[in-house]
Write a structure and sequence with these properties.
The complex is a heterotrimer of chains A (218), B (237) and C (317).
Chain A: H1 2-16, H2 18-53, H3 57-69, H4 72-83, H5 87-111, H6 115-123, H7 128-167, H8 170-174, H9 177-214
Helix pairs in contact in A: 1-9, 2-5, 2-7, 2-9, 3-5, 4-5, 4-7, 5-7, 6-7, 7-9
Chain B: H1 18-21, H2 28-70, H3 72-87, H4 90-101, H5 105-129, H6 133-141, H7 146-176, H8 189-197, H9 202-230
Chain C: E1 8-15, E2 25-32, E3 37-41, H1 48-55, E4 63-68, E5 71-72, H2 78-83, E6 85-89, H3 100-104, H4 106-110, H5 115-128, H6 145-157, E7 163-167, H7 175-192, E8 195-200, H8 203-209, E9 212-217, E10 221-226, H9 228-233, H10 238-244, H11 248-254, E11 275-277, H12 282-292, E12 296-300, E13 306-311, H13 312-316
Parallel strand pairs in C: 3-8, 3-9, 6-7, 7-8, 11-12
Antiparallel strand pairs in C: 1-2, 1-4, 4-5, 9-10, 12-13
Helix pairs in contact in C: 5-6
The chains are: A mainly alpha (218), B mainly alpha (237), C alpha/beta (317).
C-alpha cells in the first residue's frame, strides 16, 4: 500500500521542515487575515446600515448567492492580468470572496433583532447610531460572527489556492510537488487544514461567549 | 501524484487570430472555434460532478438528519463533524485524499460531497424541528401515529428549509468543483488552468469562469422554481 | 366512523407529576351526559387543560379512570381513541401545507374515506361553520384568526366524533368575533348535539356556553359542578362565589327570559310602560327599567301583541 508509507513520509517531513512549514503558515495567515480585515471594513458598515434600515433584502440575498457562485480559481485568474502575479492580485480576490458572507450575515443579524427592543430604545431617546451600537449590534453579534467564520474559512481555503499563483504561503508547497514531493504537499495540506480549523474554532469560541452572554440559562 | 506542474508557467504562443495572439480580453472567434472541443465538454463534466456530489450528499445528509432529528444525542457530534469537514480548505482536502483514492473522480467527489454535508445536514434538521408545537399537538390529538406525523406533517413542512439548503449546497459545489481540476482534467476548472498555463490566455479563463457563475446561478434559479412548485402554501404569507 | 354523542364519565381521575407535591388534577369525578356541553373553568393552576388532555390521553392518567359510553379510555387503542374524539385548541394548529379541504380531510383520510366523500363532507362542514365554499381551496396562511378557528372546528367535526374536546378555542380571538363564534357554536351544537368538554378561563364564556360548569380550584380539585344558574344562585363556598364574581346575581338574570315569568294580565295601566318581546333576558329587561326609571313593563309576543306585565320585583324573583 502506498498510502501507508506516504503518510509515514509526511510524518517525517514535518519535524524536518518545521521552520519552513511554520513560516509558510504564517504567510498564509497574514494574507488571509489582511484580506479578512479589508473585507470586514468594507462589508460591515454596509451590512449593518442596510440591516438597521431594513432595506436591501434582495441586495443582501443576491450578494450572498453571487459570493458563493464565484469560482475561486477563476477569480484569482481573472485578477492576474489586472494586478499581476503577487500580493495585490491575491488580496483583491480574497477580499471579493470575504465580503459576501460578512455583509449578508451583518445584514440579517441586525435586521432580525426584535422590533420591540429597537422601538423601546428609540422611545428612550437613543440616536440611530446608538441603537445600532448598543442594541442591534450586541443582539446580532452571534449571527454576525457566524458570517465572519464562514468568510474566514472561504478566505483561508482560497489563500491556499492563491499560493500556487505566486501568493506565497502553504499553497506554494502544495503547488510544487516537484520540489517538495508528495510528503511535503501532504504536510502543507495538514498545516493549512489546521490553520483553518484553529481560526474557525477561535471565532466559534467568541460566538459561543456572545450567545451565552445573551442567554445565561442555556 | 498531483497534476500541478512544477516551476514557472511557460508561455506558449498561440497561432490563432490577432485577438488571440494579442491575448485580448474576450476573443469571440476563439469562443466559436473551441466551444465544441473545450468549453462544452467541460461544462457537461462540471454538471456531472455537481449533480453526483449534491445528489449523494443529499442522500447522506438526509439519513444523518433523520438520526440527528430522532435521536438528539447524535445531533451535536454529526454537526461538529460536518463543520470540521467544511472547514478544511478544498485544495488541502483534495491533496489529502489523493494517497487514498488517487487522481480519480472519486477523490473529487468525496471532497465535494463532504462539503455539502455541512449545509444540507443543518438545514434538514432545522426544517424538521421548525414545525410549530400547535401543529404537532393537533396532529397527535387527531390520532396520527409517529410515522404518519413525520411523513404527512414534519417532512413536507421541512421542504422549504431543505430546498434552501439544496440551493446553497448546489451553488457552492459548482464553485468548488472548479478546484477539482487540480486533481483530474475535468470540469470548468480545466480550461481555466489551461488558460493560466498558456500565458494567461484571458478569453479561456474568463469564458470558463463566467460559465461556472452562470451554471451556479442557473441551477439556483431552477431550484427556486422547484421549491415554489413543491411548496404552494409558503408563497402566501 | 364514529357517530352519535357519547356519555363521558370522570371517575376519580387523577394526574400527579413526580416532581410536584400537589396533584395537577385531584380525584376528579363528574359525568357529562351525552350531547351536553360541560365547561371546565377555574384559575390558572386549576388543571382544567390537564383534565381535558387526560381524555384523549395526550397526558396519561396517574390513577382513576375516564369512560366514554362506559368503556375506559385505557381499553381503547390510542390512535383509534384520538381519531374518534374531536380536538380543538386555541392556536388551532392547522397544517400549513394543506388547504382548508385537506385539513378537514385529515382524519377521514385516516379512516380511508374517498376523495369525493371528503370533498362533500368538507362542503357540508364549511356551510355548518359559516364559511363560503370558496374557502375549500385556500391555505391557512390566507385566513384570519376567526376563520382559522372555524376551520379548526370543522376539522374536529369531520369524522363525526361523538365527543369533542375544546381547549380555550376562542381565547386568542378579539371580543367581537369571539361573541359571534360563541353564538354560532351554540347554534351549531343544537344541530349536531355532540358531547363537548370546553375549557376556558372566562367565567362569562362558561356561563354562556355551558349546559354544566365544572369549577376547578388550585390543585385540580373540583369545587362545584352544576348548571350555570345553580352555580350563580347557589355557589357552594366563597371560592366559587368569588370566582363567578360579585355581579353573579346579574349574570343569573342573563340566563333567564321574560318567557319564564308568571305575567299579570295586561290592563289599562300598561300605557306608558316599556314593551319588550318575551325572549328578552331578565338582565336586559332590568337594564331597561333602570334606564327608563320605570317599575314594570309589558311583555309582548314577537309580533308585538301584549301578553301581560311584570314588575321590577318579579324580575328580581
Amino acid at each position: 500500500m502506498i498510502a501507508g508509507s506516504t503518510f509515514l513520509d509526511t510524518l517525517r517531513f514535518i519535524p524536518h521542515h518545521a521552520g519552513l512549514l511554520l513560516d509558510k503558515t504564517g504567510e498564509t495567515a497574514e494574507l488571509s487575515f489582511a484580506a479578512l480585515g479589508v473585507a470586514l471594513a468594507i462589508a460591515l458598515p454596509i451590512g449593518l446600515w442596510l440591516g438597521h434600515k431594513h432595506r436591501g433584502l434582495f441586495f443582501a440575498l443576491g450578494v450572498s448567492t453571487l459570493g458563493r457562485a464565484l469560482p475561486t480559481v477563476a477569480l484569482i485568474a481573472f485578477f492576474l492580468p489586472l494586478l499581476g502575479i503577487g500580493l495585490w492580485n491575491n488580496l483583491a480576490a480574497l477580499v471579493v470572496l470575504g465580503v459576501p458572507p460578512i455583509l449578508t450575515n451583518a445584514y440579517f443579524a441586525v435586521e432580525g433583532v426584535e422590533a420591540d427592543a429597537v422601538e423601546a430604545a428609540r422611545g428612550m431617546g437613543l440616536t440611530e447610531l446608538q441603537i445600532l451600537a448598543r442594541v442591534e449590534l450586541p443582539l446580532g453579534l452571534p449571527l454576525l460572527l457566524a458570517g465572519l467564520r464562514i468568510a474566514a474559512v472561504f478566505v483561508i481555503a482560497t489563500a491556499t489556492i492563491a499560493g500556487i499563483f505566486g501568493g506565497g504561503g502553504l499553497g506554494e508547497i502544495i503547488g510544487d510537488q516537484g520540489s517538495y514531493r508528495l510528503s511535503g504537499v501532504l504536510a502543507a495540506s495538514l498545516f493549512v487544514a489546521a490553520l483553518a480549523l484553529l481560526t474557525a474554532l477561535a471565532i466559534a469560541a467568541v460566538q459561543r461567549a456572545a450567545y451565552r452572554r445573551m442567554s445565561p440559562s442555556t | 501524484m498531483s497534476r500541478l506542474a512544477a516551476g514557472p508557467i511557460i508561455p506558449s504562443f498561440s497561432q490563432g487570430s490577432s485577438c488571440e495572439r494579442n491575448n485580448g480580453w474576450f476573443c469571440t472567434d476563439w469562443l466559436h472555434q473551441h466551444w465544441g472541443d473545450t468549453l462544452q465538454p467541460a461544462l457537461v463534466q462540471h454538471v456531472e460532478l455537481t449533480v453526483i456530489a449534491v445528489g449523494v450528499g443529499f442522500g447522506i445528509s438526509f439519513l444523518l438528519a433523520l438520526a440527528g432529528f430522532r435521536f438528539r444525542l447524535f445531533d451535536l457530534p454529526i454537526g461538529v463533524f460536518a463543520d470540521l469537514l467544511y472547514t478544511i480548505p478544498s485544495l488541502a482536502l483534495f491533496q489529502l485524499l489523493v494517497p487514498l483514492t488517487g487522481l480519480t473522480v472519486t477523490t473529487v467527489e468525496v471532497a465535494l460531497i463532504s462539503y455539502t454535508l455541512f449545509i444540507l445536514y443543518r438545514n434538514i434538521v432545522a426544517g424538521l424541528r421548525a414545525v410549530p408545537d400547535e401543529v404537532l399537538e393537533s396532529a397527535r390529538g387527531m390520532g396520527l401515529t409517529r410515522l404518519q406525523t413525520f411523513i404527512r406533517v414534519e417532512l413536507p413542512l421541512a421542504v422549504p428549509a431543505l430546498m434552501a439548503g439544496l440551493r446553497i449546497a448546489t451553488v457552492s459545489t459548482v464553485s468548488i468543483a472548479t478546484v477539482a481540476a487540480f486533481v483530474i482534467p475535468e470540469g470548468l476548472g480545466e480550461p481555466i488552468f489551461t488558460g493560466l498555463q498558456e500565458d494567461l490566455f484571458k478569453t479561456e479563463i474568463l469564458a470558463a469562469g463566467l460559465l461556472a457563475v452562470a451554471l451556479a446561478l442557473g441551477a439556483d434559479l431552477l431550484l427556486v422554481l422547484l421549491a415554489r412548485a413543491l411548496t404552494p402554501w409558503s408563497r402566501l404569507t | 366512523m364514529p357517530s352519535e354523542a357519547a356519555e363521558l364519565v370522570f371517575d376519580e381521575a387523577t394526574k400527579r407529576y413526580p416532581d410536584r407535591e400537589d396533584a395537577a388534577v385531584d380525584r376528579l369525578s363528574l359525568t357529562v351526559p351525552a350531547g351536553e356541553i360541560c365547561v371546565l373553568v377555574g384559575p390558572s393552576g386549576g388543571g382544567k387543560t390537564t383534565a381535558l388532555k387526560l381524555v384523549n390521553r395526550l397526558i396519561p392518567l396517574s390513577s382513576g379512570d375516564i369512560r366514554i359510553d362506559g368503556v375506559s379510555i385505557l381499553e381503547h387503542d390510542l390512535t383509534e381513541l384520538r381519531r374518534s374524539i374531536g380536538y380543538v385548541i386555541q392556536q388551532v394548529g392547522l397544517f400549513p401545507h394543506y388547504t382548508v379541504e385537506g385539513n378537514i380531510g385529515v382524519v377521514p383520510r385516516l379512516y380511508g374515506e374517498s376523495r369525493s366523500w371528503i370533498k362533500a363532507r368538507s362542503a357540508e362542514l364549511l356551510e355548518l361553520v359559516g364559511l363560503d365554499q370558496s374557502y375549500a381551496r385556500r391555505f391557512p396562511a390566507q385566513l384570519s384568526g376567526g376563520e382559522r378557528q372555524r376551520v379548526g372546528l370543522a376539522r374536529a367535526l369531520a369524522a363525526n366524533p361523538p365527543l369533542m374536546l375544546m381547549d380555550e378555542p376562542f381565547g386568542a380571538i378579539d371580543p367581537i368575533v369571539r361573541a359571534r363564534l360563541q353564538d354560532e357554536f351554540l347554534r351549531l351544537h343544537r344541530d349536531v348535539r355532540k358531547t363537548v368538554v370546553f375549557v376556558t378561563h372566562d367565567v362569562d364564556e362558561a356561563i354562556k356556553i355551558g349546559d354544566r360548569i365544572a369549577i376547578l380550584r388550585e390543585g385540580g380539585v373540583l369545587a362545584q359542578y352544576d348548571t350555570p344558574a345553580r352555580i350563580l344562585e347557589h355557589p357552594v363556598d366563597d371560592f366559587v362565589a368569588d370566582f363567578v364574581g360579585r355581579d353573579r346575581a346579574l349574570k343569573a338574570l342573563a340566563l333567564r327570559t321574560l318567557d319564564e315569568l308568571e305575567l299579570a294580565p295586561a290592563g289599562a295601566a300598561e300605557d306608558g310602560l316599556p314593551r319588550l318581546p318575551a325572549e328578552t333576558s331578565l338582565r336586559d329587561a332590568l337594564a331597561l327599567l333602570v334606564a327608563e326609571r320605570k317599575d314594570a313593563l309589558v311583555v309582548t309576543d314577537a309580533d308585538g301583541t301584549p301578553r301581560g306585565t311584570v314588575t321590577r320585583e318579579d324580575l328580581l324573583g
